[in-house]
């Protein structure tokens, strides 16, 4: 190889510097009608560098292998799990042969990335595989380990983009293996590929070498997280995603708002697995790190400056998304606690409650042990802030109303934050989803409330927040959302009706209820039936015909609605026999529908097993009740 002080070598270094500048800087300003102009120029410079390196090699007596990349034996992609990590084979990396191979491999690498960037994927793959061929002659060493990892990262991205996930997995797992073994056996700050074509006085510091090398490995983990997710290995994907986020903080390689949103998204996986400590930690870190992005620009500043306007919108939206993730956290904690505490009729099991309270002290001790072994985010500057935020909401299941209310209030605070951005004007679907979560928070909290009057008021809050929005929605454009709200409003009125009846029965039997109580009960009963019926009517054809076959996504809701309508009509209180008879006939009609539909469509029976059993029973009993009422009416006449 020619001397590093020679004019030829300085020319190569200058060309490389120009190629890097064209790729990283000038390409950002390329016109829309010629978007790759700078990258094409960079490609020509890289080709010239390649030819110069080959001529140096030939001049030193090496056998010419021909062409830009030579006629080389193709390299087969590795199989998943087979890590050909380059240790223990060929030359040492710092021999002249190894240096030449690494430099030629680096140019092949940059040519490969260039072709991929300009959407010439086959040519890009060829150059990247030629880079691997060059590295076959090298032993992994501080001089070339960075290139070993970078080229496999790029091939992993390339194959993942073609949906060849297992092939991508093979390259990326090899990159991971190379890094881990290098750090175990050497660990010194390795040469960066750019330094192959840099004069000695411009070589990187050890600190910058380490930063770039660690960034490459962080990318390996990030891409592996995507690969494992696509392979359905969700637990493994979450682990790699967590490690990626942790390393980004550790090496200061992150955009605060994007990091925060990724951490918040990861929290949702932990929440679905009941791992609330990890989920809370991700959310607390997301909130703290998002603050590093700075204050949201004022509306006045946003109106004057387009950049400030874009930044304002982005920060508001991302922070609102994080707030929504907090809402889900609080809601799931309450709902999972409810499942743990409810008896077979959905009420609070006090014996179970006392049992769990006795076990609470041990659970808190185990939480502390678990925390010490968990993957924690943050540096000394941010960890205290993260820990402080975590303390505001428990990751343990609430066992009574006081504890549940504390979780509820945190969730309600984030509802207010999310609604500030996701307003009805412009974000209809998002706004309503947030309202539905708010409603669900009230419903979960109501389970813990022993005072039935206060519980009923919580459900009334749900009606008050959802019904006005429902009435304002266009039925043509928001049919699916309206159906969701119909069903929720119907169920909420139904719960209120049951609570009012329970309260009344504590004071007197149903036959001697006062007129005010009967009127209130019937109002709630009719309101519930009205919304269930609206849901059923929304399934009808434009001609008003009920569907003969219910689609899978509406099968259970439709049959449950029929069952509930039947039950509600049978429970309406009236002193007028003719009205009683009309209500009982409507109830029987709907009970029969459930039974007959399941007879005609046997596959539906499993979806509504309990409702079908009760409907079958009522189809047998109600005609007797109807006949007795008819006989009484006839005798009175």
From TrEMBL:
Xref: InterPro entries: KBP, TPR-like_helical_dom_sf
Biased composition (Basic and acidic residues): 25-39
Key words of the record: Coiled coil, Cytoplasm, Cytoskeleton
Subcellular location per the Swiss-Prot or TrEMBL entry: Cytoplasm, Cytoskeleton
Domain of life: Eukaryota
GO cellular component, one term: cytoskeleton
UniProt region (Disordered), positions on chain: 20-39, 57-98
Example GO biological process: microtubule cytoskeleton organization
Coiled-coil residues: 298-373
Known function: Activator of KIF1B plus-end-directed microtubule motor activity. Required for organization of axonal microtubules, and axonal outgrowth and maintenance during peripheral and central nervous system development.
UniProt family annotation: Belongs to the KIF-binding protein family.
Protein name: KIF-binding protein
Species, as recorded: Xyrichtys novacula
């Amino acid at each position: 190889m020619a001397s590093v002080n020679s004019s030829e070598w300085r020319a190569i270094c200058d060309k490389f510097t120009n190629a890097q500048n064209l790729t990283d800087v000038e390409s950002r300003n390329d016109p829309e009608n010629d978007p790759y102009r700078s990258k094409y120029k960079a490609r020509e410079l890289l080709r010239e560098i390649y030819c110069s390196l080959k001529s140096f090699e030939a001049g030193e007596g090496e056998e010419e292998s021909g062409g830009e990349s030579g006629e080389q034996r193709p390299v087969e992609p590795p199989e998943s799990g087979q890590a050909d990590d380059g240790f223990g084979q060929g030359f040492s990396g710092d021999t002249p042969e190894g240096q030449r191979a690494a430099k030629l491999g680096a140019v092949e690498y940059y040519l490969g990335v260039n072709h991929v960037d300009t959407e010439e994927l086959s040519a890009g793959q060829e150059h990247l595989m030629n880079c691997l061929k060059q590295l076959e002659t090298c032993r992994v060493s501080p001089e070339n380990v960075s290139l070993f990892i970078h080229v496999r990262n790029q091939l992993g991205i390339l194959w993942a983009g073609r949906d060849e996930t297992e092939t991508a997995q093979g390259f990326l797992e090899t990159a991971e293996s190379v890094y881990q073994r290098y750090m175990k056996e050497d660990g010194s700050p390795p040469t960066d590929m750019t330094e192959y074509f840099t004069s000695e006085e411009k070589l990187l510091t050890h600190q910058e070498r380490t930063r770039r090398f660690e960034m490459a490995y962080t990318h390996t983990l990030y891409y592996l997280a995507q690969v494992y997710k696509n392979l359905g290995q969700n637990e493994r994907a979450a682990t790699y995603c967590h490690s990626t986020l942790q390393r980004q903080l550790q090496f200061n390689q992150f955009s605060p708002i994007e990091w925060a949103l990724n951490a918040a998204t990861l929290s949702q996986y932990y929440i679905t697995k009941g791992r609330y400590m990890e989920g809370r930690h991700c959310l607390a870190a997301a909130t703290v790190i998002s603050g590093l992005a700075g204050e949201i620009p004022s509306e006045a500043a946003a109106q004057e400056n387009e950049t400030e306007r874009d930044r304002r919108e982005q920060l508001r939206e991302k922070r609102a998304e994080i707030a929504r993730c907090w809402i889900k956290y609080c809601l799931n904690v309450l709902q999972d606690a409810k499942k743990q505490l409810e008896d077979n009729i959905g009420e609070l099991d006090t014996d179970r409650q006392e049992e769990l309270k006795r076990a609470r002290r041990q659970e808190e001790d185990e939480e502390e042990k678990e925390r010490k072994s968990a993957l924690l985010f943050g540096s000394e500057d941010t960890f205290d802030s993260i820990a402080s935020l975590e303390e505001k909401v428990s990751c343990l299941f609430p066992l009574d109303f006081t504890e549940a209310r504390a979780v509820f209030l945190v969730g309600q605070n984030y509802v207010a934050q999310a609604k500030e951005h996701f307003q009805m004007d412009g974000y209809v679907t998002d706004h309503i989803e947030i309202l539905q979560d708010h409603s669900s928070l009230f419903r979960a909290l109501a389970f813990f409330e022993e005072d039935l009057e206060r519980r009923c008021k919580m459900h009334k809050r749900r009606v008050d927040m959802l019904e006005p929005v429902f009435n304002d929605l266009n039925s043509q454009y928001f049919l699916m959302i309206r159906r969701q709200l119909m069903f929720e409003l119907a169920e909420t009125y139904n719960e209120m009706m049951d609570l009012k009846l329970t309260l009344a029965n504590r004071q007197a039997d149903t036959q001697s209820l006062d007129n005010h109580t009967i009127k209130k009960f019937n109002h709630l009963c009719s309101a519930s039936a009205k919304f269930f019926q609206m849901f059923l009517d929304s399934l009808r054809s434009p001609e008003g015909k009920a569907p003969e076959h219910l689609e899978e996504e509406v099968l259970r809701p439709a049959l449950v609605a029929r069952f509930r309508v039947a039950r509600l009509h049978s429970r309406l209180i009236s002193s007028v026999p003719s009205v009683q008879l009309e209500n009982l006939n409507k109830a029987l009609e709907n009970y029969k529908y459930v039974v007959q539909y399941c007879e005609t469509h046997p596959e539906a029976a499993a979806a509504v097993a309990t409702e079908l059993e009760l409907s079958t029973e009522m189809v047998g009993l109600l005609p007797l009740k109807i006949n007795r009422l008819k006989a009484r009416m006839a005798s009175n006449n």
